[in-house]
Amino acid sequence: MSVRTLEGNARFWALAACLFWLAFTLFPLYWVVITSFKSPLGVVGGPTYIPFVDFEPTLTAWSELLSGQRGQFFSTFIASTIIGLSAAFLATAIGSMAAYALVRFTFEVRLLSAVIFVVIAFGGYLLCRHYLGVGQATSLIYAFIAALALSIISSRFKLPGPVLGNDDIVFWFVSQRMFPPIVAAFALYLMYTEMGKLGFKLVDTYWGLTFAYIAFSLPIVIWLMRDFFAALPIEVEEAAMVDNVPTWRIFFGIVLPMSKPGLIATFMITLAFVWNEFLFALFLTNSKWQTLPILVAGQNSQRGDEWWSISAAALVAIIPMVVMAGLLSRLMRSGLLLGAIK
Amino acid sequence: MSQVRLQQVTKSFGSVTVIPPLDLTIADKEFVVLVGPSGCGKTTTLRMIAGLEQATSGEIRIGDRDVTALRPGLRNCSMVFQNYALYPHMTVAENIGYGMKVRGTPKAEIDKAVTEAARILNLGAYLARKPSALSGGQRQRVAIGRAIVRQPDVFLFDEPLSNLDAKLRIEMRTEIKLLHRRLQTTVVYVTHDQVEAMTMADRVVVMNQGRIEQAADPITLYESPRNLFVAAFIGAPSMNFIEGSLDQGDGGPVFRGQDGVSVPIPAERVSALSPYAGQAVILGIRPEHTAPASGSDPSIKLKVTDIEPLGPHTLAIGKAGGAAFTAQMPANTRVGPDDSVDVQLDAQKMHFFLKSNGEALPR
Ligand SMILES: Nc1ncnc2c1ncn2[C@@H]1O[C@H](COP(=O)(O)OP(=O)(O)OP(=O)(O)O)[C@@H](O)[C@H]1O
Ligand SMILES: [Mg+2]
């Protein structure tokens, strides 16, 4: 059934409901746009709705924003762009490799090896920290390396207990997105500062934030790409295997081009996540590598409620995502995301 | 020399044994067709030769190399898949030349090989197209082109024609046969279509539940099937079977079935069959070896339930001797459902099988 088939009153109400919903969703955007062109007086002096009629638009907010009077706007925009693009790219690249491995190869992880990892990681850390008097970061590193090595070695033996397969591994990845990010953000901040004390500066650096974003995008990337790879016909890869094409070439030369639509979609979803992310950026940066969401929020806290400049900054943060959504929908309409595998 | 030998090869998936120990030797330049009902292990056997499936035990040799543990790329086989498995993002030319490109062959040489393959397969006009812009038959030819530029020791085909329509299938059948004659390469070809098997093969391997029931040239399979399974599988419409026993009649040994079926055994076969007197046997006769009763050959009564006029001749389908029976009649025969006709059996072409194990009795 479509709205077109409705008659008379029903049609009128359906249309009215749709228009109402449209206005409801567009109004905030409209409000932000006009607010960004209002003068401070125009904002505090009560609601005005129509430019040139209700109020005289000014470019004050925009010129203040772009001239850098309100925080390092350009450098923030560039930092956001660099971190967003590179984190999304790296996460998509690494995540697709992991997803491909999880689709095409069988993994068997013994639960006991995983338990060994957890026990040694925690126990080793506590041991180093409290009984051997080693520094925080150093204990972390020692414990982690020991845990990783021992669990890998132990997985070589036929340990008793249940064996985890590919699905369990995927679930483990995805489950990392289930706890509240604030937990991880706080822990990450502590870890980064400890690393900083060792001489590896991570707080407020490009790599620090990018690493965090890659790590937190990976579960989604793996989950999405796994479905794309699983939908590919395996015979194509088998044909290449029989033809003596090396595995890495099968992946880069055949599998990736075949899943281009999936890669593009995943990249964009990851980019949107990183672009809009607030919590990690708040904890892990303070000036140089601040991102746009922090800048927008900062408009408020630093100078009181200056809605005109908040609006201008918010628009700048929104526009790239609007452009991307437009691109994505065009890709979808041109069928690139659907009909490529045939 | 690219003989293929499977020695005591088995395959299990987990606890399920799909192929019990299997021995098969395929001679150099031979065109062997593996045929059998769905799920009998044809694809599994082929994939073990290609290396896409690891044999659980046993040994696989190609030429004089033991390839059992080699990965697929090192076995120098080419495989053509049922669903073509072309690289969708490459043009026809790139599809055919990709393997060579990966192996670092100079571009001029690749171009030459691609052009040559395109000429053989009539693909010249499509070299710049993507697979999605090709018909099924053209895609299948591209897949074959990709296989031949490899210059493999062995060609492996897994039901390459089953996605094509009937007419195209017959054309491609001929093309593949011609190709084999031209390239003189060993071919292992899998199909579940016995007509395809019979028309293409030098030797047909009939498989059932992972075992080889009989491996022989098409005419031998047709004329002297080794057991009931092969007899029923080969030939269309398939052979008629009547259960009964070998008895001593008035004028010599006879085959007796239900509903008064009584077929005298021809004199020249008496000595071969006499050791089985008194045992339960099954008489097999192909529809094309039946006719309306007239001469001296033995005949049975067929209760017709349906007729199928095919043009050159008409099939009368019904029951005889308590079993389903199809008889072939001349096109002008006037029979209809519910008629009862006397059908004569060509005494020379009768087959007898032991009921207990399905083995064919000696002729
Ligand atoms: N990966 C697998 N795991 C478990 N069982 C399998 C697997 N692959 C095949 N089999 C089983 O092995 C048997 C033989 O399969 P195979 O694909 O070789 O049959 P086939 O003769 O090629 O049949 P078809 O004509 O339908 O293609 C089947 O019973 C199938 O269920
Ligand atoms: Mg098969």
Automatic annotation (TrEMBL), chain A:
<dbReference type="InterPro" id="IPR050901">
    <property type="entry name" value="BP-dep_ABC_trans_perm"/>
</dbReference>
<feature type="transmembrane region" description="Helical">
    <location>
        <begin position="109"/>
        <end position="128"/>
    </location>
</feature>
<protein>
    <recommendedName>
        <fullName>Maltose/maltodextrin transport system permease protein MalG</fullName>
    </recommendedName>
</protein>
<keyword id="KW-1003">Cell membrane</keyword>
<keyword id="KW-0762">Sugar transport</keyword>
<keyword id="KW-0813">Transport</keyword>
<keyword id="KW-0472">Membrane</keyword>
<feature type="transmembrane region" description="Helical">
    <location>
        <begin position="263"/>
        <end position="286"/>
    </location>
</feature>
<comment type="similarity">
    <text>Belongs to the binding-protein-dependent transport system permease family. MalFG subfamily.</text>
</comment>
<dbReference type="GO" id="GO:0055085">
    <property type="term" value="P:transmembrane transport"/>
</dbReference>
<keyword id="KW-1133">Transmembrane helix</keyword>
<feature type="transmembrane region" description="Helical">
    <location>
        <begin position="307"/>
        <end position="328"/>
    </location>
</feature>
<dbReference type="InterPro" id="IPR000515">
    <property type="entry name" value="MetI-like"/>
</dbReference>
<keyword id="KW-0812">Transmembrane</keyword>
<dbReference type="InterPro" id="IPR035906">
    <property type="entry name" value="MetI-like_sf"/>
</dbReference>
<feature type="transmembrane region" description="Helical">
    <location>
        <begin position="77"/>
        <end position="103"/>
    </location>
</feature>
<feature type="transmembrane region" description="Helical">
    <location>
        <begin position="12"/>
        <end position="33"/>
    </location>
</feature>
<feature type="transmembrane region" description="Helical">
    <location>
        <begin position="140"/>
        <end position="157"/>
    </location>
</feature>
<feature type="transmembrane region" description="Helical">
    <location>
        <begin position="204"/>
        <end position="225"/>
    </location>
</feature>
<dbReference type="GO" id="GO:0005886">
    <property type="term" value="C:plasma membrane"/>
</dbReference>
<dbReference type="Pfam" id="PF00528">
    <property type="entry name" value="BPD_transp_1"/>
</dbReference>
<comment type="function">
    <text>Part of the ABC transporter complex MalEFGK involved in maltose/maltodextrin import. Probably responsible for the translocation of the substrate across the membrane.</text>
</comment>
UniProtKB/TrEMBL annotation, chain B:
<dbReference type="GO" id="GO:0016887">
    <property type="term" value="F:ATP hydrolysis activity"/>
</dbReference>
<dbReference type="GO" id="GO:0008643">
    <property type="term" value="P:carbohydrate transport"/>
</dbReference>
<keyword id="KW-0067">ATP-binding</keyword>
<dbReference type="InterPro" id="IPR047641">
    <property type="entry name" value="ABC_transpr_MalK/UgpC-like"/>
</dbReference>
<dbReference type="InterPro" id="IPR003439">
    <property type="entry name" value="ABC_transporter-like_ATP-bd"/>
</dbReference>
<protein>
    <submittedName>
        <fullName>Sugar ABC transporter ATP-binding protein</fullName>
    </submittedName>
</protein>
<keyword id="KW-0547">Nucleotide-binding</keyword>
<dbReference type="GO" id="GO:0140359">
    <property type="term" value="F:ABC-type transporter activity"/>
</dbReference>
<feature type="domain" description="ABC transporter">
    <location>
        <begin position="4"/>
        <end position="234"/>
    </location>
</feature>
<keyword id="KW-0813">Transport</keyword>
<dbReference type="InterPro" id="IPR015855">
    <property type="entry name" value="ABC_transpr_MalK-like"/>
</dbReference>
<dbReference type="GO" id="GO:0055052">
    <property type="term" value="C:ATP-binding cassette (ABC) transporter complex, substrate-binding subunit-containing"/>
</dbReference>
<dbReference type="InterPro" id="IPR017871">
    <property type="entry name" value="ABC_transporter-like_CS"/>
</dbReference>
<dbReference type="GO" id="GO:0005524">
    <property type="term" value="F:ATP binding"/>
</dbReference>
<dbReference type="Pfam" id="PF00005">
    <property type="entry name" value="ABC_tran"/>
</dbReference>
<dbReference type="InterPro" id="IPR012340">
    <property type="entry name" value="NA-bd_OB-fold"/>
</dbReference>
<dbReference type="Pfam" id="PF17912">
    <property type="entry name" value="OB_MalK"/>
</dbReference>
<dbReference type="InterPro" id="IPR008995">
    <property type="entry name" value="Mo/tungstate-bd_C_term_dom"/>
</dbReference>
<dbReference type="InterPro" id="IPR027417">
    <property type="entry name" value="P-loop_NTPase"/>
</dbReference>
<comment type="similarity">
    <text>Belongs to the ABC transporter superfamily.</text>
</comment>
<dbReference type="InterPro" id="IPR003593">
    <property type="entry name" value="AAA+_ATPase"/>
</dbReference>
<dbReference type="InterPro" id="IPR040582">
    <property type="entry name" value="OB_MalK-like"/>
</dbReference>
